[in-house]
TrEMBL record:
UniProt key word Lipoprotein: no
Parts of the chain that traverse the membrane: 7-25, 59-78, 90-113, 125-142, 154-176, 196-216, 236-254, 274-294, 306-326, 338-356
Coiled-coil regions listed: none
Alphabetized InterPro entries for the sequence: Seleno_YedE, Sulf_transp_TsuA/YedE
Descriptive protein name: Membrane protein
UniProt entry keywords in alphabetical sequence: Membrane, Transmembrane, Transmembrane helix
Organism: Desulfosarcina ovata subsp. ovata
Length: 361
């Protein structure tokens, strides 16, 4: 199994499995063209915890929990669990915040961008172009010595922190379930309408998340890494998995009658193309500077990477900022302060990129 998932056909299989399962999760209740969206689902978790009060996006998404725990199981089984931390935690946190803000201006992470495309949403084209542009800028910094520092082995407890937090979220959800017709129990917030109220059955979603976390950890699946490796090294290994995800999601959507081509009226999407591009350019640059797309950061967290866990927490907090301060978009368009946030985010990321380069002597 280890050798298979590390092979060309292995990564293609992983992309195909994710594409099929994402389309099926949509059929089973997840929002349109959002069978899986790491950024959107982390945003929903932030809402469920009360970090923002946007009532239409509040739900603890079991898929995210499954990604982390599934990756941890795989890492332990194959003796790849390595608790480790590096340097510049506050930088990683800030990158996570701005990655989330950029994604919520576009309304989706790289995973959802390709799933939107596979569902017929033409607006996703501009998001994917922006993502590519942001990653390309990031590769320029990488070529010129950008580095957040080395990682070093640390206590096992450090690597366990994010998986334990995710288990805590699951326990909260089981102990404090939604009461029919109510958007709040003693602890958690639940959406009564909108995307947050649309979800696949809890345990089915958790099982899918565990499975994806397991195979993604084995294959090193990463959407940002696919574009980065192509630009930096001319390698297409990860890109084949990325393409496979699009193809199999598209075919599954066709089979399930979920393919609806066009630009207007797409689910949880807007047509302000400049900011579809700009939001994902910000997100792509932040992902490149942090070393992985949001899914990859969850999988790394599961195998003990404390740096990735800091980035994940930054994204969850960033979701709170995005909705509390009018940065996130909606189907009506970009939030009142979303454009300013993208410009500020790009400036911050460029500052990080320029200032954290190793000086050559």
């Amino acid at each position: 199994m280890k050798n298979f998932f590390a092979s060309r056909w292995g990564i293609i299989s992983v992309g195909g499995i994710i594409g099929i399962l994402a389309a099926l999760l949509q059929k089973l209740g997840n929002p349109g063209n959002m069978g899986i969206c790491v950024a959107c689902f982390e945003r929903d978790i932030a809402g469920a915890l009360g970090l923002h009060r946007a009532g239409v996006v509040q739900y603890i998404r079991p898929e995210i929990i499954g990604f982390v725990i599934g990756a941890m199981i795989a890492a332990y089984l194959f003796k790849e669990y390595r608790p480790r931390v590096g340097s510049a935690p506050i930088v990683r946190f800030v990158l996570g915040v701005f990655a989330m803000i950029g994604a919520l201006v576009f309304l989706g992470c790289p995973w959802r961008a390709v799933l939107r495309l596979a569902g017929g949403d033409g607006n996703a084209i501009f998001g994917l172009l922006g993502l590519t542009a942001g990653i390309w800028i990031g590769t320029l910094f990488l070529k010129n010595g950008y580095n957040l520092g080395r990682t070093q082995t640390t206590h096992a407890a450090v690597g366990w922190m994010l998986p334990l937090i995710m288990l805590g979220f699951l326990i909260l959800m089981l102990v404090f379930p939604q009461v029919e017709g109510q958007g709040k129990n003693d602890i958690l917030f639940y959406s009564l309408k909108g995307p947050g109220a649309m979800h696949a059955p809890l345990f089915l979603a958790l099982i899918v998340g565990l499975g994806i976390g397991f195979i993604a950890q084995r294959s090193r699946f990463c959407t940002m890494g696919a574009i980065r490796d192509l630009v930096l090294f001319g390698q297409i290994h990860l890109l084949t998995g990325f393409i496979s995800l699009v193809v199999f999601a598209f075919l599954t959507n066709l089979a399930l009658k979920q393919f609806h081509p066009g630009f207007a009226g797409q689910p949880v999407a807007h047509t302000m193309q400049l900011w579809n591009f700009g939001g994902m350019m910000l997100a792509g640059l932040a992902f490149a500077l942090a070393g992985g797309c949001p899914g990859r950061q969850l999988f790394l967290s599961g195998e003990g990477d404390g740096d990735a866990a800091v980035f994940v927490m930054g994204m969850i907090v960033g979701a709170g900022f995005a909705h509390n301060f009018g940065l996130a978009s909606s189907p009506k368009g970009v939030g009142p302060h979303g454009i300013a946030a993208v410009i500020i985010g790009l400036a911050v990321c460029l500052f990080i990129g320029f200032s954290m380069r190793k000086k050559t002597t």
